[in-house]
TrEMBL record:
Encoding gene (name): atpE
Keywords of the record: ATP synthesis, Cell membrane, CF(0), Hydrogen ion transport, Ion transport, Lipid-binding, Membrane, Transmembrane, Transmembrane helix, Transport
Spans through the membrane: 7-26, 54-76, 88-113, 133-159
Family annotation (HAMAP family): ATP_synth_c_bact (MF_01396)
Function: Key component of the F(0) channel; it plays a direct role in translocation across the membrane. A homomeric c-ring of between 10-14 subunits forms the central stalk rotor element with the F(1) delta and epsilon subunits.
CDD domains, alphabetized: ATP-synt_Fo_c (cd18121)
Topology in the lipid bilayer: Multi-pass membrane protein
Name this protein carries in UniProt: ATP synthase subunit c
Domain V-ATPase proteolipid subunit C-like positions: 11-74, 92-155
Top-rank lineage group of the source organism: Bacteria
Organism: Candidatus Mcinerneyibacterium aminivorans
Subcellular location: Cell membrane; Membrane
Amino acid sequence: MEVVTELVIYLSAGIAMGFGAIGSGIGEGLAGGKAVEAAARQPGVQGKVMKTMLIGQAISESGGIYALVVAVLLLFTAPHEALSVGKIAALLGSGICMGFGALGPGLGIGYAASKGVEGVGRSPHNEPVIFRTMLIGQAVSGSTSIYALVVSLLLLFVIK
């Protein structure tokens, strides 16, 4: 494999996973922090708070998982012939697209989860409404990471 191509593949995989992990990590931390505050304020509703937190964190992780898939696909990209400048740019674009495309949604989904946990901690009797609203907000916020995944895969497999 040509040295430039190898460098681009490794750089792209690192960008995809690095930025994808930042968004998911911060988003999950936001939810976890608010869960600790809510459980400290009202220990009797810890079960509802914990459920909301764990589901919120799991959804926040989705962008990081998409970034991992793209990074692994990039690392297993082993061209047998010299690549065009366009294909090399597409490989780099794929990693950048997925990394940054997972960063924002990870933060947004985590923010929604943190507010959901906070709401359940304050009004545990409204947990079903708060939980449902949190999930809808997370779904809308997370849709952009799916768009980034689609574009990233197109760049990987369609551009010649």
